[in-house]
Each structure stands twice: as structure tokens, then as C-alpha cells.
Amino acid sequence: MSKFTIAIHGGAGTILKSEITAKQEADYKNALEVALTCGYQVLEKGGSALDAVRAAVVSLEDIDLFNAGKGSVFASDGSQEMDAAIMDGKNLDAGAVSAVKNIRNPIELAFAVMTLSDHVMLNGRGAEDFARLHNIKSEPDDYFFSALRFAQLKQAQQKGEMMLDHRSLNPNKKFGTVGAVACDAQGNIAAATSTGGMTNKKWGRVGDSPIIGAGTYANNQTCAISCTGHGEPFIRSVTAYDVSCLMEYKNLSLQDAMHIVVHDKLLKLHGEGGMIGVDAKGNAAMMFNSEGMYRAMKNNEGVKEISIYK
Ligand code: ASP
């Protein structure tokens, strides 16, 4: 049995200790702890990395603290369009959905695309039809509505901007895309990412999160990565796959490969954000070039961390 590990994130961005109350900090840390435990318990019982990342992301999608599932931000037309992807490092199987509405757990829909269809990525109405066919749980608009999110949309519209969630003009409330990576006791790794995208996005904009290789990637030979941040630079630099390539072709460690991508390559494209990663030996890393990233990790050697700021 090898070392098993899970790492999760709840988004990276302008997250400053001075702008978050003790109560809010405790709420975020508690939510991270709950999700971490959901995933870790799967690994502890001998379950797969794939099931562990699903469990952790479902837990984060089910609360309104983060920008995914229930807590998703609003697009410019007042709708909530969600993106998600999951990838199995054992066989490079992958599933993704983009711009889906009313799906309670987009990560479960991405998993269904991976396991029940011949495709990798389904979009919008088609993805929702596929969800109905396979009894993937949906929720009415009310379930996703929050007055705070709506106020964020109005603020973004007044400024005429598309906003990263963590750049919220309400400094007391910051949320983020969610993700998980895990290495199980068999040495298999997996990655999952889920998001509402960016506030006031239009024209069917899709970020990096559901794009295999950009926001999400897993390969047992190298690493499993889930990203968060301003999606466009992450897409242009094929960020998650770049970490894998640096490990594969340059023989770099997970830590060193992530460092180059987060602190050099992304910054050159003004790509603010971060990522979490594991390799198939159970090593984990959590890195970001922004003020903070909601993050947590735990392994079976007693290492555990739950952090928000730098
Ligand atoms: N990467 C996401 C996107 O661009 C946003 C985020 O990570 O918060 O859609």
C-alpha cells in the first residue's frame, strides 16, 4: 500500500485576512475540513482516487460558500451557467460539461459523461438532456439564487467588467471555484474541478475549469492537477497539462513543475490564480500567485493542512 493523499481548493484570488471576519474564516475552514474528510474517508476505506475527488467536490458544490454548484455566480443574463471536469489518471478517461444550468452537482454530470457516454465534453442544453436521461439531480433556480451573488452581478455590470469571484466588490464575501486531486493506496490519481465561472460572463463564455489540460488534468505517469484563477490565461498556457509535461519531459518533481508554471509561466500572461496537485507517490503541493487560496490537504502519514492566506 502506498501513501494516500487528498488536496482540495475553494478558489484563489484577492483573499486578504484583513477583509475576512473570524466567523467567516471559521466557516470557510469548516467547509474545507468537511470536504477534505468526505474525500479522505473514501481513500481510508480503500476507495479510488476518482471517488475521493468526486466526494470532496460534491461536498463543496452543496454549500453556498464557494463558486460552484449551489454558490455559483451569475452570468450577464442573470442565469447561472456551471462548468466541471473530472479525469482518471489510471487510464486518461475524462468527462466534462460546460454552461449547464440547474444541475445540482455538475461534477457528477461530468463523471456521467466520462462513464456513460462516448464523449469527453458536453455543452449546455445537450448536456442537460443527457443529465435527464441519466437521472442526474437537478434543482430549481431558487436553490441557486443568492441576493449577494445578484448584487455582485449588478456591481460588475455597473463597472462593465467580467469579474473573478474573488475580486468581489463586497470585501466581506469571497468565494471560489472548487477542485480536488487525490492519490489512492493503489497509486492511482485523479482530478476534479467545478465552477460557476466568472460573474457577468457573456456569450457563453467558458473558462479553463472544464477544459481537459487547461484547468483539470490527471495522468498516473505524472500528476493530477486542478486549477483556479482567471481562466483565459490558464487556457492559453494549457496550464494543468504543462505541469504534467514538465514532469514527463524534464523529469521535474511535482513541486518544481508547479512552481515554474504558477510563478513564472502564468505570471507572464498575467494569469492570477493557483492550483493543487498530487503525484502517484502521494506527494501533494498547493501553490498560488494571488493573495490567497482556500486550500486543504491530508495524507495517511499524519500531514494535514487547512489554509487560506499566503
Ligand atoms: N477558473 C475559473 C474560470 O475562469 C474561475 C475561478 O477559478 O474562480 O471560469
CATH H-tier superfamily: (Glycosyl)asparaginase
Q: CATH topology, anyone? A: Glutamine Phosphoribosylpyrophosphate, subunit 1, domain 1
Strand order in space, largest sheet: 4-3-2-6-5-1-11-12
Percent range of helical residues: 25-40%
Bound molecules: aspartic acid
CATH architecture: 4-Layer Sandwich
Strand content: 15-25%
Molecular shape: globular
Low-pLDDT parts are: 168-175
End-to-end CA span: 33 Å
**Got a strand count?**
12
Order of helices and strands: EHHEEHEHHHEEEEHHHEEEE
Radius of gyration: 17 Å
Write out key terms for the chains shown:
single chain; 310 residues; alpha+beta; Glutamine Phosphoribosylpyrophosphate, subunit 1, domain 1; four-stranded antiparallel β-sheet; globular; binds aspartic acid
Task: Furnish the topology, listing elements before pairings.
Blueprint lengths: L4 E9 L8 H23 L4 H13 L20 E7 L4 E8 L5 H11 L4 E3 H10 L7 H4 L2 H13 L18 E6 L5 E7 L20 E3 L5 E6 L1 H6 L2 H12 L3 H15 L4 E6 L5 E5 L3 E8 L4 E6 L1
Parallel strand pairs: 3-4
Antiparallel strand pairs: 1-5, 1-11, 2-3, 2-6, 5-6, 7-8, 8-9, 9-10, 11-12
The protein binds aspartic acid.
The site of aspartic acid has 17 residues, from β8.
What does this structure look like?
The strands form two sheets. An eight-stranded mixed sheet has the order 4-3-2-6-5-1-11-12. Strands 7-8-9-10 form a four-stranded antiparallel sheet, with helices on one face. It has a single domain (5-309), classed as Glutamine Phosphoribosylpyrophosphate, subunit 1, domain 1 (4-Layer Sandwich). The protein has helices spanning 22-44, 49-61, 106-116, 124-133, 141-144, 147-159, 231-236, 239-250, 254-268; strands spanning 5-13, 82-88, 93-100, 121-123, 178-183, 189-195, 216-218, 224-229, 273-278, 284-288, 292-299, 304-309. Helices cover 35% and strands 24% of the residues. It binds aspartic acid (ASP). Aspartic acid is lined by residues 11, 67, 164-165, 176-177, 195, 197-198, 207-209, 215, 228-231.
